[in-house]
Amino acid sequence: MRTRLWITAIVCLAGLCQAGSSQAGLSQTGADQEKVRLEKNKTIVRGYVDEVVNKGNLAAVDTYFSADAVFNSRPAKAQLALTQAVRQAFPDFRLTIEDQIAEGDKVVTRVTFSGTHNGEFEGIAPTGKRVKYSGIAIDRIVDGKVVEMWHVAETLSMFQQIGARLSAEPKK
Question: Of the candidates 47, 51, 64, 134, which has an alpha carbon nearest to the alpha carbon of residue 98?
């Protein structure tokens, strides 16, 4: 009788352990799926930085951005015109990703901008000076597309590097 009781106890414990393993497997699978999703979101941001920003491939915009994407609370399409103006003033313009962190539906990217001022920019004649400055971006991804972007860059540093005289007085 005792042997049968021990066998039953062992079988029950083995069953519990197996059930626990399958539950752990399910949560591990969920964690793996989340990790894959976060990596995919980072890949989307790296893709638009390379294709749209660095290469100037405007045909790729719809691949990476939703039709109603916003950039710092404005339509993202308006930002594309500024990006093109920067690329014309700094033909070797390059945005280098230094760090990326993804959590939830957001990707935070630390970047370095670099380029040579060989074209007019914001009314400043070309100086031939090489510039380098930093920025941080937070992009929100939904269904594989960027829907919202919050970017901050040290543009004051860029203006200082090209020798721009900045005034606190408003333009007349």
Answer: 134
Q: What single letter denotes the amino acid at residue 142?
A: V
Whose CA is closest to 111, among 18, 45, 28? Answer: 45
Closest to 111 in 3D by CA, of 134, 94, 92: 134
> Which stretches of the chain are assigned E, i.e. beta strand?
65-71, 74-75, 94-103, 106-116, 130-142, 145-153
| Rounded distance between C-alpha atoms, residue 51 and residue 60, angstroms | 7
Which tens digit of pLDDT belongs to each residue from 14-66? 444 444 444 444 456 888 899 999 999 999 999 999 999 999 898 898 999 99
Which two tokens mark 147?
């829907």
Q: Decide: 159 and 62 in contact? Cβ < 8 Å.
A: no
pTM of the model: 0.76
Task: Break the chain into its structural domains and give their ranges.
Answer: 2-161
Q: Which of the listed CATH numbers 1.20.1250.20, 2.30.42.10, 3.10.450.50, 3.20.20.480 matches domain 2-161? A: 3.10.450.50
99-147 tens-digit pLDDT: 999 999 999 999 999 999 999 998 999 999 999 999 999 999 999 999 9
Instruction: Please report, as a single letter, which amino acid is at residue 50.
Output: D
Residue 129 phi/psi, 5-degree rounding, is: -80, 145
